[in-house]
């Protein structure tokens, strides 16, 4: 029997999510190291939150900041790419192609609503809406 599950994963310990502009100006070794960190975050959050294996999923991605500057809405794609790879590593999805990733929606970045919202200076918030097998 299949169903739909939703999970909200918050990575608030890696600082400001890597933006496309930042990644463009980084050395390729630094980009690789950065992506590994976001990948590990996706893996660990999936395991800690017991996100089950899914046949497919849609994602809402949003960055939260304590202070500006506020980047473009889709600027955090490099951070999410690594995070999504971590979800695949955790067995949440069989792969990150269109056969399994139904959609990715980037929500406008926002400033904190309260100091208790996140622990660090910024966070990447990923909401997964998945189809369980």
Tell me what the structure shows.
The structure is a single chain. The chain is an alpha/beta fold and 133 residues long. 29% of the residues lie in helices and 30% in strands. The chain has helices spanning 20-24, 28-48, 77-89; strands at 3-11, 54-65, 101-106, 110-111, 122-132. Strands 1, 2, 3, 4 and 5 form a 5-stranded mixed β-sheet that branches. Helix 2 packs across helix 3 (77-89). The longest helix has 21 residues, at 28-48.
The span between the termini is 7 Å
* Helix residue percentage: 25-40%
Give me the Rg, rounded.
14 Å
The fraction of residues assigned to DSSP E strands is: 25-35%
The strand count comes to 5
Give the mean pLDDT: 91
Low-confidence segments, ≥5 residues, pLDDT <50? none
Task: Give short descriptive properties of this protein.
single chain; 133 residues; alpha/beta; five-stranded mixed sheet; 3 helices
In short:
The protein is an alpha/beta fold and 133 residues long. The protein is 29% helix and 30% strand. Helix 2 crosses helix 3.
